[in-house]
Amino acid sequence: MKTVKLFSVFVSLVMFLGFLGIASAGTLDEIAKRGELRIACQTQGAPFSFVDRNGERTGSSVELCEMIAKEMGVKVKFLNYDWDGLIPALLSKKADMLAADMTPTLKRAMKIAFPDPYMYTGSVIFVKQDSPIKTLKDIKPGTKMAALLGSTGETDAKKAFKDLKFKTYKGGGPLLINAVLSGHAEAGVNDISAVRSQVSNFPPNSVRILDGQLSKSPLAFAVRYDSPDLLRWLDLYFLHISLDGRLDKNLDYWVNSLDWKKDH
Fold first, then answer.
1. Beta strand 187-191 with 123-128: parallel, antiparallel or unpaired?
2. Beta 75-80 vs 36-41: how paired, if at all?
3. Statement: residue 24 has pLDDT above 70
4. Can you name the CATH fold of 26-120+219-262?
5. CA 11 to CA 32: how far, in whole Å?
């Protein structure tokens, strides 16, 4: 009987120590041991994440992630995905975190965890310059609307207008502008920051952004729910860079102006 009790105590102790080992081995430890932070992002998401005319990856999110890796003391590895591949890449553990101009919707939060938002934006409608669509009131049922598959813009447009005919695309915002200019869609919907920057790559005065935003939306990076340590760390990171001015400097250059155009 004494032997059985000692064995039970031994087994319990082993399980307890094993639990402590599992509990202490978090995502931050894994990143530190690996010496590399793996980030799922886009290459067609200017001004947040894109490849510039010099063939260099750059953008607001890219710069923020490079700062994150520097603070962690590790290298950064960017993994390229289309918009609808970002969340699957994170959930499959190919990436440690997701860095894109993503809205932390309640539906997405059922799958992935978002730190506190670092900025706010909203969806807008854009058309060809000579389009008969002059205001949001001119968007009628049956209007062909270009949107990124699974994007907040698509959701916002469905809420704002009835019976639209959606043409969805996998990739970046320039695909939507091309769809409108080529006549495959009568209008497009996307984040105002993305539209404002991407339109500047097309012929002058070829695209017109309609007055009025469909929504006011927060933007945030994302991690898995099994990475609470990384989630908390990101909250502290954005708190620090908001207090020391680095966040405002990033957003003023990349998002609130087109100053980056002359450099990239």
1. antiparallel
2. parallel
3. no
4. D-Maltodextrin-Binding Protein; domain 2 (3.40.190)
5. 31
CA distance 39 to 49: 11
Element (H, E) at 139: none
Output the CATH code of domain 123-215.
Answer: 3.40.190.10
Q: Which amino acid is at 256?
A: N
The amino acid at 109: A
Q: What is the 3-state secondary structure (H, E, C) of 18-39?
A: HHHHHHHCCHHHHHHHHCEEEE
Tell me how far CA of residue 121 lies from CA of 50, 153, 219, 259, in angstroms. 19, 11, 7, 19
Could you tell me how many helices (H) and strands (E) the chain has, helices first?
9, 13
Gap between the Cα atoms of 207 and 194, Å rounded: 13
Q: How far apart are CA 207 and CA 228, in angstroms?
A: 43
Burial code (b: 16+ CB inside 10 Å, e: under 16) for 245-259 equals eebeebbebbbeeee
Comparing CA positions, the residue from 220, 212, 181, 214 lying closest to residue 198 is: 181
Structure-token pair, residue 122: 């909203």
Q: pLDDT tens digit string along 200-258?
A: 889 989 999 999 999 888 999 999 999 999 999 999 999 999 999 999 999 999 988 88
Name 190's Cβ contacts closer than 8 Å, sequence gap at least 6. Answer: 123, 124, 126, 147, 148, 151, 153, 173, 176
Domain borders along the chain are 26-120+219-262, 123-215
User: Is 211 in contact with 133 (CB distance < 8 Å)?
Assistant: no
